[in-house]
Amino acid sequence: MTDERRRNNFDLIRLFAALEVATIHAFNWLKVPKPALVLVVDACFPGVAIFFVISGFLIARSYVSGDGSVLKFFSRRALRVYPALWLQYLFVFVLMGLTGGFFIRTIGDAHFWSWLWRALTFGSNFWAGALTNYTPFVWTGLYKWYPDDVLWTIPAELGFYLLVPMIFARWIVRRRLLAPVLAVAFAASVWVAFKAGPLLRDHGNLNTTGMLHASPLPYFWLFAAGAATSFYWEQVRGLFERKALWWLALYGIGAAVKWLAVGSADLTYRIPDAFTIPRGLLLAGLVISFAHSWVWLSRRMRGVDLSYGLYLFHLPLPYGLYCAGIGGSLWYVAASLVVAFVLAAFSWFLVEKPALGMKASVERILTFNGQARMRSPAISS
Fold first, then answer.
1. From 15, 157, 236, 336, which residue has the greatest number of CB atoms within 10 Å?
2. How far apart are the first and last CA of the chain?
């Protein structure tokens, strides 16, 4: 994986995707009119959809190139996802405590611990609340809703991790069944996406809607596009390497066609329409192609990945300013992004990077334990 990182721009694209999400949220919550460039990026390059494509490409490669150990695969994913996520929960509890939304006496309530372990496991305040019918917060302080409400993507991502060892199981690959299995999973995800979209549009407050959209089912088709390209990379790399301008032109044509047809160029991946799937596949092609074009662009980013921290920590400030009735100025947007980058750097250097440094040690422990079990004599009854 290290060599692959040296030869692509995925870290740069992830940073762009996180910045897109942070910027759009800042403009929306601070009630600042969006410049034309921001409107175009918001419509055509949704950061979460880009994340899902990149995740498919890299996670599938990580699993397939490994030794087949599901435990090692899950340990690598856990070390990447959970440390910063748990730091985010700590940050939210402190923030809510300082702004009147969380009381220290709450930790004496058994419901709090039931909520907490589900939140820490599923990576979602929504799932924790839906499963326990409880929230540890009150909304009479500054914040009127969860101050970092971007976590619906975390259980979707965790769901992808659970699906990868099943879809890319070695017996499926050996029997050359991967292509039809991926095709069925892709089609099923598209079907769910079209069923779930109207629920989000018309019944967004229902728990059923939230559970569906905080799951991998409506978005696996984006993940699968990246995963399939990764698995068949040696056969298809010629379509992507140094072809980013061609993919950009194709994607632009797709956006123009939708604009001419319905007067909007939005890539509505959460509430899909007839244009969503082909445009989503073109976006996947553009992302993967840009990752393998002008690879020198990411040379200075090696060893630093602020994208996850930026995604996790960008929302509390602009949402807090909104709740306080403050906004309307680009200066607030700029300030919120600066603070988000500072928090992301703190998360990366003090939590995420040290956790990733533990990957090799954890894998050695799992390997040793596995070998020890194989060497241990059977116990006769």
1. 336
2. 46
